[in-house]
Amino acid sequence: MKGKKRLFLIFGSIAILVVLFAQCMNNKKAAPATENTIAGAATCKQCHAAITDSYLENPHQHTSHPIEGDELLNGPLPHSSVFAFDQHLKVVVEKRDSGMYQVAYLDGKETIARRFDIAFGAGVKAYTYGSWQGNELKQLPLSYFKTIQSWANSPGFPSDRVYFDRPIGLRCLECHSSFVNRKMVQDGPLTVKEELDGKSLVYGIDCERCHGPAGKHVEFHLSHPEAKAAKYIAIYKTLTRQQKIDACAVCHSGNNWEVQQSTFSFKPGDDIKRYRSAKVSLNSSKEPEYDVHGTQSQLLEKSKCFMKSNTIDCSSCHRTHENLKGNLTIYSQRCMSCHTTIKHSQATLANAMVKTNCIDCHMPKQASKMISFQLAGKNQVSTYLLRTHRIAVY
Ligand code: HEC
Ligand code: HEC
Ligand code: HEC
Ligand code: HEC
Ligand code: HEC
Ligand code: HEC
Ligand code: HEC
After folding, report:
1. Which of 193, 238, 285, 328 stands 20 to 30 A from 149 (CA)?
2. Burial of residue 17, with CB atoms counted within 10 A of its CB: 0-12 exposed, 13-18 middle, 19 or more buried
3. Is residue 383 a part of any domain in this protein?
4. Per residue in 145-175, pLDDT tens?
5. Closest CA to ligand 1's atom 37
6. Which one has a higher pLDDT value, 89 or 6?
7. Does residue 271 fall inside a structural domain?
8. Whose CA is nearest to atom 41 of ligand 2?
9. Ligand 5 lined by 333 (C-beta under 6 Å)
10. Residue 47 carries which DSSP code?
């Protein structure tokens, strides 16, 4: 009797376990996507092939990438591999067995060598480079500048010594990549340091960085191929102008903010104030001065085009799925879509540009006050030119 009861119990438990286990498996298979499920950039192509292909040309896609093989030797770089600070001190870009390195020499003796691991920037104007030191990313002393086709001391670096210790923190990656895991680690009684998990880094800016997690969108459309209207994804058309601008301003309003939480979780439609707030300035009566580098949204908001029209936003001129770089004729057509009649003086009308290029007169290139770079030899500083987004008569 006892034996039978025990057998019954054992079989009973096994049966329950089997049922539970099966449920688990089912759950795993059918775990529904939530609004935070990331689908991954590779999944978009099957339904959005044209956009995925044209986006390959856009600088956003390439704004960070791992350095592999000999790319620095084959690419546009380097016309010269030596950067001399002075007659004693130089940094040389060298190929070694485990990759490409920046190597510092003092009077011909090697003092430090660090590998190129990550390039920042799509190379429109410049590349800067990061090197992993354990779980910390450090900026390399030399950057490459397209305008001068040459290496230069990285912006803001000391000009009299070689500096290998500037950390590249989460903030850089929040604007220049799609995701990385960060951990704050206590490294002293009162200090914490930031550690980044390189393996979790998603390079470049991918579709979901601008459109928000699309796991649920993909799940729905895969199982409802007949549905023509987009589901479970932010519809840009329905956002307010401020929300549209904020979706770009996350990365295009500069870095002078108190950060509340990582912008990696920002989705179109979110209130940007939950992510960052203005720094409290002791000198708050003075209007802040916006540099042309990185503050496109503030400058645009200072333009009459913005203040006097309710519609202008970044997409009035830009298409982030294409590369329009340098096509000033197309950009000028965007101006003319609002400005059909213009009261130009005779003198202005005499200028050949007036029909095809509004940009050079009304959004001139200006030198950034934040970024300038030092060339080989001392004290020679080169400017970094950007278009101002304060559209006006100059
Ligand atoms: C199984 C097909 C499918 C996949 C996979 C898919 N989508 Fe879509 N998506 C659609 C359909 C259908 C629409 C509605 C028609 C259209 O706008 O092209 C749509 C529309 C959109 C829209 C437009 C919303 C608007 O403003 O109207 C965005 C943005 C979008 N998808 C993003 C993505 C992203 C990002 C991915 C990859 C992570 C993705 N989709 C993967 C089917 C898909
Ligand atoms: C996740 C951060 C991020 C978001 C969001 C973002 N950008 Fe950018 N954007 C960048 C970075 C970084 C660059 C510099 C790319 C490079 O050259 O490395 C850039 C470059 C650009 C450029 C210059 C390159 C070109 O295509 O001519 C334009 C224009 C631009 N962004 C417009 C926009 C607009 C419009 C939006 C909103 C729809 C937007 N960006 C959203 C980070 C972002
Ligand atoms: C708040 C967002 C933001 C942060 C933080 C940020 N960047 Fe950028 N970065 C941009 C934008 C936007 C551009 C392009 C337009 C411009 O210069 O205004 C850019 C341009 C660049 C370029 C030139 C790209 C090219 O194709 O010419 C490099 C290189 C670069 N950033 C490196 C860095 C590094 C390294 C860090 C961290 C130390 C950093 N950035 C931090 C937004 C950011
Ligand atoms: C830098 C931000 C940004 C990135 C990255 C981005 N988009 Fe968009 N996308 C936008 C904006 C802004 C709009 C709405 C305005 C427009 O059409 O330019 C849009 C519109 C769309 C639409 C609907 C309108 C249309 O043109 O059909 C689809 C679909 C879409 N995106 C898919 C994608 C896919 C797929 C990727 C990745 C390959 C991607 N987007 C990457 C900003 C971005
Ligand atoms: C969405 C519509 C729109 C677009 C696009 C647009 N503007 Fe404007 N712009 C306006 C409005 C509205 C005003 C204010 C006119 C007024 O004061 O009567 C204005 C004013 C101006 C002014 C006078 C500024 C001043 O300070 O007096 C200039 C110059 C100008 N725009 C040039 C441009 C150029 C160049 C472009 C393209 C790069 C452009 N606009 C794109 C709507 C637009
Ligand atoms: C009225 C048209 C217009 C509007 C609106 C506009 N831009 Fe631009 N933007 C331009 C033009 C023109 C250029 C220069 C393009 C070139 O040289 O290839 C440019 C260049 C840029 C660049 C590259 C900077 C440089 O100097 O290389 C960035 C980044 C950018 N825009 C971001 C934005 C963002 C973000 C917004 C919204 C806050 C925005 N733009 C709104 C017309 C516009
Ligand atoms: C050679 C430089 C130059 C070019 C090119 C140019 N502008 Fe102007 N623009 C000016 C100047 C200067 C003024 C002030 C009035 C004057 O002296 O003509 C002005 C005034 C304006 C105004 C304010 C007057 C008004 O009608 O409200 C607008 C808007 C404007 N321009 C738009 C444009 C557009 C759009 C284009 C391209 C189709 C363009 N401009 C090309 C120099 C230029």
Report:
1. 328
2. exposed
3. yes
4. 888 888 888 888 888 889 999 999 999 999 9
5. 44
6. 89
7. no
8. 248
9. no
10. T
Q: What is the Å distance from ligand 4's center to 243 Cα?
A: 15
Asked if residue 312 belongs to a domain, the reply is: yes
With H, G, I as helix, E, B as strand and everything else as coil, classify residue 338: helix
DSSP secondary-structure letter at 253?
A: S
CA 393 – ligand 7 centroid, Å: 7
User: Does position 284 have pLDDT exceeding 60, yes or no?
Assistant: no
* Structure confidence at residue 12 (pLDDT): 46
Query: Confidence class of residue 273 from pLDDT cuts 50, 70 and 90?
Result: very high
- Give the structural domain span for 328: 291-394
| Residue 19: pLDDT band with limits 50, 70, 90 | very low
Residues with Cβ within 8 Å of residue 204, at least 6 apart in sequence: 60, 61, 62, 63, 64, 65, 177, 178
Does ligand 4 come within 6 angstroms of the Cβ of 236? Answer: yes
**The residue type at 160:** D
Total domains in the chain come to 1
| % of the chain exceeding 70 in pLDDT | 87
Q: Indicate whether residue 298 lines ligand 4 (CB < 6 A).
A: no
Query: What's the CA gap between 294 and 255, in Å, rounded?
Result: 8
- Which atom of ligand 3 is closest in space to residue 146's alpha carbon? 27
- Ligand 6 close to Cβ of residue 210 (< 6 A): no
254: left (phi over 0), alpha (psi -120 to 50) or beta: left
Q: Report, as an integer, the average pLDDT of 194-212.
A: 96
Number of Cβ within a 10 Å radius of residue 216: 18
Determine which residue's CA is closest to atom 18 belonging to ligand 5: 308
Residue 218 lies in a domain: no
pTM: 0.93
Q: Environment class of residue 219 by beta-carbon count within 10 Å: exposed (0-12), middle (13-18) or buried (19+)?
A: middle
User: With bands split at pLDDT 50, 70 and 90, how would you rate the model's confidence at 15?
Assistant: very low
- For ligand 1, atom 17, the nearest C-alpha belongs to 230
